[in-house]
Specification:
It comes from Modicisalibacter zincidurans. Pfam families: LysE (PF01810). Keywords: Cell membrane, Membrane, Signal, Transmembrane, Transmembrane helix. It is a single chain. With 202 residues, the chain is mainly α. The chain has one domain. It is built from nine helices and no strands. Helix 1 packs antiparallel against helix 9, helix 3 packs antiparallel against helix 4 and helix 4 packs antiparallel against helix 9.
């Protein structure tokens, strides 16, 4: 995979992880309620769920490419439309995505369970991956390239949430995230729309 293409993938994965939502709120809740260790465990468990979805998506797209190229073209264009819709929705979110997280009593086992369940229980996540990864998986892509895509999605997701859990030991981090939630939404929206336009220009 060319470096410029990988950087596009990494940027979208990073902004997807950073976007305020149930996953970020879950990690914040466990960190605030149980301390650094449950927060880190919740983040790593969430990344495992994300990695599983990424693996299944890349695997499934590979089969579609080889057996149904026309269907893959439909998925690609549909995915581009979905990414553009998500981008417009993010741009219109404004400050509505600001986080309101409350701490609750938490332990490592509960944090791991919640991390996996929040990832796997989010039906929009699989749609996001189908839409996103269809822009990066090609018919001639070998398994190292596919493994790189899965590893990128997993490591970026886990790395972000671990950083959040570690940084929350400073009391200024959560207000900082809350105050900038609208900017995260805007940057995410622009990048998703740009990725959708990339499909249109070939």
């Amino acid at each position: 995979m060319p470096l410029t293409l990988w950087l596009s993938l990494a940027a979208v994965c990073a902004l997807g992880a950073m976007s305020p939502g149930p996953s970020l709120a879950m990690v914040l809740r466990h960190t605030l309620g149980g301390g650094r260790t449950p927060g880190v465990i919740a983040g790593l468990a969430h990344a495992m769920g994300v990695g599983l979805y990424a693996l299944l998506t890349v695997w499934g797209l590979g089969a579609v490419i080889s057996r149904q190229p026309m269907l893959f073209m439909v998925i690609t264009w549909g995915g581009a439309a979905y990414l553009a819709w998500l981008g417009i929705k993010a741009l219109r979110a404004g400050r509505g995505g600001a986080l309101e997280a409350q701490g609750a009593a938490s332990g490592p086992a509960q944090a791991a369970r919640d991390g996996v369940l929040v990832a796997l229980g989010n039906p929009k996540l699989i749609l996001f991956f189908v839409a996103l990864l269809s822009q990066f998986v090609s018919a001639d892509m070998a398994w190292p390239g596919k493994a790189l895509i899965v590893a990128t999605a997993t490591l970026i997701d886990g790395g972000w949430y671990v950083m959040v859990a570690l940084a929350l030991s400073h009391s200024t981090v959560l207000p900082w995230l809350q105050a900038r939630a609208h900017w995260i939404n805007r940057i995410t929206g622009v990048l998703l729309i740009a990725l959708a336009l990339r499909v249109l220009v070939g």
